[in-house]
Amino acid sequence: MSNKAILTKIFFLVFVIVLAPRGVCWASTPADSGIYDPGNLKPMDTSTSLKVGDVAPEFSLPTLSGGAVSLDQYRNKKNVVLSFVPAAWTPVCSQQWPGYNIARDLFEKLDTVVIGISVDNIPTLHAWTREMGNLWFPVASDFWPHGAVAQKYGILRSDGVSERALFVIDKKGVVRFIDVHDINKMPKLEDLIKALEKLQTN
Amino acid sequence: MVNMRIVGAIIIVLMLAGFGLCDVAKTLSVNADILADLKFNSPENLAEKKYLGLSDGKNFRLPQVKARLLIVQLFSMYCPICQRDAHAVNELHSLLQKVPGLRDEVKMLGIGVGNTPYEVNVFREKFKVSFPLIPDDNFAIQKALSDEIRTPTFLVVKLTAGGKLEVVLTKVGEIKESGEFLKKIAAKLN
User: Fold this and answer.
1) In 10 A of CB B89, how many CB atoms?
2) Which of A165, A116, A120, A169 is nearest to A138 (CA)?
3) pLDDT tens, B18-72?
4) Who among A33, A95, A188 is closest to B76 (CB)?
5) Sheet with B164-172, edge to edge strand ranges
6) Domain boundaries, chain B
7) What's the rounded Cα separation, in Å, for the pair B120 and B117?
């Protein structure tokens, strides 16, 4: 092998070795480790025709745990929060579900289950949610047909991800609260909890 | 023929440089004057107010805290690493309470970055946090920092007379080992 070839290989090796520690560096730091920052996005890109009082569109989606989740399985049993997040490994999304994770008691007290939905595929969601700790609620993949459920709810953006949206659906399957949120911002937890509390009083 | 010893040495030097870059990436610059001037909502809980040595009033500035050092934890209820680190942070506070020389000299304050009072309370109750936590829903603390806030971040602040403060230690990321972190903090008392 010529000196030039050896040096080329060495420089490639050095390049890899020098970059590797940076990976360790980021992985050991904060919550957004490994997070892709898409920058500031158009706050909303859709306008759902779904209204409070409408019957929630039915769906069945594969979940991380291997089965499927549908609205139907909670009919007459639990209120449901559908939490659509735009994409795995992006800044706000990577914290929204961990927030709901520690608020489990609040949701359970209000007889409510959360269903997390993203247009990502199952392997991506698996890797991503592992960084969040053990989520108590089902995480569903709306990957194929791509974004079909987001489309049904009128929140599939033109770039193929969903809006950051919350739908509260009561035990009868009726939509009782809609928050299609600015995609760049975190919805306030208390707004969602207040909407659920309203179900108890009605 | 290329001298493999020289190549090996170059690789080691570059590896170390790579690790050095990590440290640079974690370094956070804080504008002490801006930090000292930020107004926060006072804790509503009287015991927390008393712990910080704050008089009545809705707002306070960090230099008003009665301590020599203040450990400011920037956290978020939504941050999974803050959740994971909550035990170590609570332990740090317990350790401080157990050492008479440190109990009154070093105080702790958590600031929920981007969190509402409600969200801060969820975090407080979930992890049974026994030191004051206050909300910063408008990201006011960001004004004092050179880089985008990553949570958790710890700022150890020396409080000096005349309403001034000096940032003596910053740490981005979880503390993991409360005892080790406490040693670093205690060294800043001298």
Assistant:
1) 24
2) A116
3) 333 333 345 688 999 999 999 999 999 999 999 999 988 899 999 999 999 999 9
4) A95
5) B133-136, B106-113, B69-75, B153-160, B164-172
6) 29-187
7) 5
Q: Could you give the 3-state DSSP secondary structure of residue B125?
A: helix
Within an 8 Å CB–CB cutoff, is residue A7 touching chain B?
yes
**Residue A138 CA from chain centroid, whole number:** 11
Taking Cα atoms as reference points, which of A100, A124, A123 lies closest to residue A112? A100
CA-atom Rg of chain A in angstroms = 20
Q: What are phi and psi of B62, to 5 degrees?
A: -55, -40
Helix (H) or strand (E) holding B70: strand B69-75
For domain B29-187, which architecture applies?
3-Layer(aba) Sandwich (3.40)
pLDDT in tens, A99-126: 999 999 999 999 999 999 999 999 999 9
Task: Give me the phi and psi of A111, to 5 degrees please.
Answer: 55, 45
ipTM, 2 dp: 0.79
Smallest Cβ–Cβ distance between A31 and the set B10, B22, B79 belongs to B79
